[in-house]
Design brief:
With 144 residues, the protein is of the alpha+beta class. The protein contains four helices and nine strands, in the order βαβαβββββαββα. β8 and β9 form a beta hairpin.
Length: 144
């Protein structure tokens, strides 16, 4: 059973998705509580491989109101938990020109916070127009 917390709506419009991965997130206790309350945003988030690990940057998790310990920054880098083979495969793919790593959604699966990340290539403006044109043609066929 999955419970989706946040989705990146612009990702599928702006990028061509090549491959997806599910990764665990390393979080502090107050961040988990804030996520369970649905207070996260993937707007500007992206992932990058550094030193044999993958980190998620610019993920905004709002501060938990009832937190009594010192507050953490809302946009700190967060480590992703993946297998070594997945990390190596992702690092090789991101090294190619034009391929990036973006988060698609954050969700809870069996009580654990997970993020779905994707290897993606940016779409050109004319690709987006073609997709819109195809949708319009499909709607017109069904309306007849």
């Amino acid at each position: 059973m999955e419970r989706v917390v946040a989705t990146n709506r612009r990702a599928r419009r702006d990028y061509e998705i090549l491959h997806t991965y599910d990764a665990g997130l390393v979080l502090a206790g107050a961040e988990v509580k804030s996520l369970r309350a649905g207070r996260a945003s993937l707007g500007d988030a992206y992932a990058a491989a550094e030193g044999g690990e993958i980190f998620l940057y610019n993920l905004h998790i709002a501060r938990y109101d009832k937190n009594t310990t010192s507050p953490l920054p809302t946009r700190r880098p967060r480590k992703l938990l993946l297998s070594r083979t997945e990390i190596n495969r992702i690092a090789r793919a991101v090294a190619q020109k034009g391929v990036t790593l973006i988060p698609l959604k954050i969700y809870f699966s069996r009580g654990y916070a997970k993020v779905e990340i994707a290897l993606a290539r940016g779409k050109k403006k004319y690709d987006k127009r073609d997709k819109i044109r195809e949708k319009d043609e499909g709607r017109q066929r069904w309306q007849r």
